[in-house]
Structures are given as structure tokens and as C-alpha cells.
Design a protein that fits this description.
The protein has two domains: 12-25 and 281-367, Alpha-Beta Complex (Aspartate Aminotransferase, domain 1), CATH 3.90.1150; 28-278, Type I PLP-dependent aspartate aminotransferase-like (Major domain) (Aspartate Aminotransferase, domain 2, 3-Layer(aba) Sandwich), CATH 3.40.640.10. The protein has helices at 4-7, 27-41, 47-65, 78-88, 109-112, 133-139, 166-172, 191-194, 263-279, 281-301, 327-336, 358-367; strands at 15-16, 72-75, 96-99, 120-123, 144-150, 175-179, 198-202, 214-218, 305-306, 319-322, 339-340, 342-344, 347-350. Strand 12 (342-344) and strand 13 (347-350) form a beta hairpin. It has 368 residues and is of the alpha/beta class. The chain is globular and about 65 Å long. The chain has twelve helices and 13 strands. Helix 2 packs antiparallel against helix 9 (263-279). The strands form three sheets. Strands 2-8-7-6-5-3-4 form a seven-stranded mixed sheet, sandwiched between helices. Strands 9-10-13-12 form a four-stranded antiparallel sheet, with helices on one face. The chain has a two-stranded parallel ribbon with strand order 1-11.
């Protein structure tokens, strides 16, 4: 039985507020990786054990986002997952994709790269921190084939009402692709309620898992709409049948997995996913947002310029703020005091999680 202290990152004396970047992992998660490496040091592990690990990760991921395991493929990261969609879609020169210019590169460059094939990117207004429903409607034309958005925007944590686009996309036969990396693990996420056709996220942020694993979700009815562009031994129906030479793709999203995975990472990932399920996403979300509220109102009271939305329903645990020309010096001061955060575009981004100790937040409040 794993005790509670083993289930959350322990950290040291620092005040860690960087979960929107790369998160620490819990001792129990690290132990899984160490156990897997120890098994490797003794020789080649049981292949079936590896297969079972992937199967269980798929099942746990499916429960987390309310998707069947068959709709989930594992990749190296979010960029990899989105690139598989971008390159595998059947698109013609002149077809249009709606993107936001304030997207994180993982959900921008894979689409930008399609311009070499004559695909046209239609950019939403850059002034909008999160794309509005009206702006997206205005951007749709009879050439629109896909809309690519983040569920939660990385810079200041604005939440996009992705679910509002479901009927519009269905009416106009437009695919909807969402980057979920800033929401899975801390916000309740249901891919069916969101109405997305494709989704992607990585392991290294709110899931408190090691970096190096990406997840690709494809709506089951659309599996054959995407052509696998990277293939290998694991892409086929019988991956361990080495003498077959017919390329018969797996009937599940596994068709997008090419070969041997890093099973040490997946052993740790499985534990991280199970801890999230045991804690309960509703509890994780409520606790993280309580900490967000504390930080937001502390900064507001002290006169800082808040870039994150005040209404928690429009935001996430991310709190981004500025101190004018003094922002960089404030960031450097906080770093020296052990505060781990992100400095970007003359702003400071705090991203607490559900387990962030209150005492550390109160200590931070005295520093800002």
C-alpha cells in the first residue's frame, strides 16, 4: 500500500509553481521507473509484460478522458501526435485550417508545415487571449477543413469553450482538433462532451509524470480518415508475427504506433495515471482552483496587472501577471528566493497544483 506522501511530489525548500511547464514526479512514480530499469539490468524482460503495461496505460488514459482504449495511440509528445494528424489527413491544395496565432508551437507548427502542400492557414485575431466563438464563426469558409485550438491556453490559462463548436463543425463537415496538454490531469476532460475529433496531450505537466510520452486521441469513427505516415512493426494487426509482409494496419489507434516504446517511462506513467484516478479529477480540480484563487486575489490586491481571467470558469490553475518594467527584476528576485515559475514576454506565470502546500503559498504572498 502506497502512503499519501509517496503519491505526490515532495520537493525541497523551493516554492514550485511551474506545473504548466514540466512538473516534478511523485516518489511512487519514480519507484516504478527504477523497478523497470532494475528488471532491464537483469536481462530482457517478458514481452507480454510490456504489452500489458501499454494496455493498462491505454485503459487508464481512456478513463481519464472518457474515451475507449481503442481510440488512443501513444507518441513521443504532443507535437508528434498533432503532426500525425496533420500529415495523415487527406487535404487538397487550397483547403483551409483555422488556427490561433497565440497557440503554443506544438499546435501551430504541424499545421504551418502544411503550407508546403498548398494548405492555407486562416489566423484568428491575435489580440484575443482565447479564440471567441464569434471570431471562429467569422473565419469559417466553404474551404475550411479543420479547426485547431487549445482547450486551455498555455500563456495565461484562458479556457476555450471547445464544446460550443461541436454543432458548427458537424454542420459544415469540419474536423475539430484540440491540444489538451494544459487541461488533462487538472481539469475534468471528456472528449465526447467537448465534441473533438482529434486530441493530443503530453505526460509532463499536470499529470505529474515523466516527460517523453504523448497521447493521440482519434474519434473511433474517424480512424480510417487518417493515413498512418510513420509505420512499423507495431502498426499492424499482428505485431509479433515477424514473417508477414502484408501491411494490414491494426483496426485500432495502435496503427499510429510504429515500434518499441520506452517501457520504463510507461511503467511510471501507469502509476501517475492511477494516482490521478485515485485522487479523483473533481478533487484535483477543486483543490488546484482554490490555490489559483488565493494567488489571483493576492496579486490583484497588491496591484499587479493580471492577464489571466478573473472568472475561474473561464480560466485554469494558471495565473499570469506583469509588474510593468519591473517584471524581470521581480522574477529574478523570486528565483533567488526559491520560487519556480515561468518568465515569458515580460510576464510571470504561476501554475499551482492540487497538492501545492498552503504554507508555501502564504510564504510566496509575503515575497510578491
Amino acid at each position: 500500500m502506497i502512503n499519501n506522501n509517496q503519491r505526490v511530489p515532495q520537493g525541497g525548500n523551493e516554492i514550485f509553481l511551474n506545473h504548466a511547464a514540466i512538473s516534478p514526479i511523485a516518489p511512487a512514480v519514480a519507484q516504478e521507473a527504477q523497478t523497470s530499469l532494475a528488471a532491464l539490468s537483469r536481462g530482457i524482460p517478458d514481452i507480454q509484460e510490456w504489452v500489458n503495461t501499454l494496455k493498462e496505460c491505454r485503459e487508464e488514459t481512456g478513463r481519464l478522458i472518457n474515451a475507449p482504449p481503442e481510440s488512443i495511440a501513444f507518441t513521443q509528445n504532443t507535437s508528434h501526435a498533432i503532426s500525425l494528424i496533420a500529415e495523415g489527413l487527406c487535404l487538397d491544395s487550397g483547403d483551409e485550417i483555422i488556427v490561433s496565432p497565440v497557440e503554443y508551437p506544438a499546435n501551430y507548427y504541424p499545421w504551418k508545415n502544411l503550407e508546403r502542400r498548398g494548405i492555407v492557414l486562416r489566423h484568428l485575431p491575435e489580440k484575443d487571449p482565447s479564440p471567441s466563438f464569434e471570431a471562429i464563426l467569422e473565419a469559417i469558409t466553404d474551404k475550411t477543413r479543420l479547426i485547431a485550438l487549445s482547450h486551455v491556453q498555455y500563456f495565461a490559462g484562458h479556457r476555450c469553450a471547445v464544446e460550443k463548436l461541436r454543432s458548427v463543425c458537424s454542420t459544415h463537415t469540419i474536423y475539430l482538433c484540440a491540444d489538451l496538454i494544459q487541461s488533462v490531469g487538472v481539469l475534468p476532460v471528456d472528449v465526447n462532451s467537448l465534441g473533438v475529433d482529434f486530441a493530443a496531450f503530453g505526460s509532463q505537466k499536470w499529470l505529474l509524470a515523466p516527460p517523453g510520452i504523448g497521447t493521440l486521441y482519434i474519434k473511433p469513427a474517424l480512424l480510417t480518415h487518417i493515413t498512418p505516415v510513420i509505420t512499423g512493426a507495431f502498426s499492424v494487426q499482428t505485431p509479433l508475427e515477424t514473417l508477414q509482409k502484408d501491411l494490414s494496419f491494426a483496426e485500432t489507434a495502435r496503427r499510429f504506433e510504429s515500434g518499441t516504446m520506452n517501457f520504463t517511462l510507461f511503467s511510471a506513467y501507469r502509476r501517475a495515471l492511477r494516482i490521478a484516478q485515485e485522487k479523483g479529477i473533481a478533487h484535483i480540480y477543486a483543490s488546484a482552483m482554490e490555490r489559483r484563487a488565493f494567488l489571483y486575489h493576492t496579486l490583484k490586491r497588491k496591484g499587479y496587472t493580471l492577464l489571466s481571467p478573473e472568472n475561474p470558469a473561464q480560466g485554469s490553475p494558471i495565473v499570469t501577471f506583469s509588474h510593468g518594467t519591473k517584471t524581470k527584476s521581480l522574477y529574478n528576485f523570486l528565483r533567488k528566493k526559491g520560487v519556480v515559475a515561468t518568465f515569458r514576454h515580460n510576464t510571470i506565470r504561476f501554475a499551482p497544483h492540487y497538492y501545492t502546500p498552503w504554507q508555501k503559498l502564504k510564504s510566496l504572498a509575503k515575497l510578491v
